[in-house]
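Onboarding guide, step 5: your first structure request.
Type a short instruction followed by the sequence, for example:

Predict the 3D structure of this protein.
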Amino acid sequence: MDKFLKAMHFRHACKVFDENKEIKQEDFLNILEAGRLSPSSMGMEPTRFIVVNDKKLKEELRTICWNQVQLTSASKVVVLKTLISPLMPPSNYVDSMSIRRGSTKEKREAWSKVYANFLESMQNKGISLQAWAQKQAYIAASSMMNYAAYIGIDSCPIEGFDIDNVNKILGCDTFKESVAIILTFGYRKKNNKNDIDLA
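The system replies with structure tokens like these:
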């Protein structure tokens, strides 16, 4: 079987991590890089990553994430949040993205018009800016979990949480940004009989 497909069979939502096994820093940085390099709609790259290392903060998050043990047993916890208001033109962020699209003023203005029309069309269909932006975080999350599986590291995505309290604990200005999803990474505590050897 192809190595990547082996990794996809290996990957599952790990509920019980081995608290005694830590992810190597190099491997973890590569997981983050996989997320950073992920595609996003219109190339707007709205996803931001918060690496949670503080034990007390992990415990606080667990209490408002349906007491899911992954948050305190995983080797690494990453919160993916998304920009909101900076994505709405006119804004400095949108201007900075337009500069990447063309060397001339005309090219930048043309791209900005396409982007503004795209947002208007989307919102006319009842899709909020926040909902669209959160989808981009899920693309990054998928890349990170798939890469982790490829190198033999387990993960679990967490959506079950009190978003208002998570935003509050992390100091998010919810006009500008909001938490989209939480990812936990580590090594499964017990080998499953159906596990695939990735070697």
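Each response can be followed by summary notes, for example: Helices lie at 3-10, 25-36, 55-63, 70-73, 92-99, 105-124, 129-150, 163-169.
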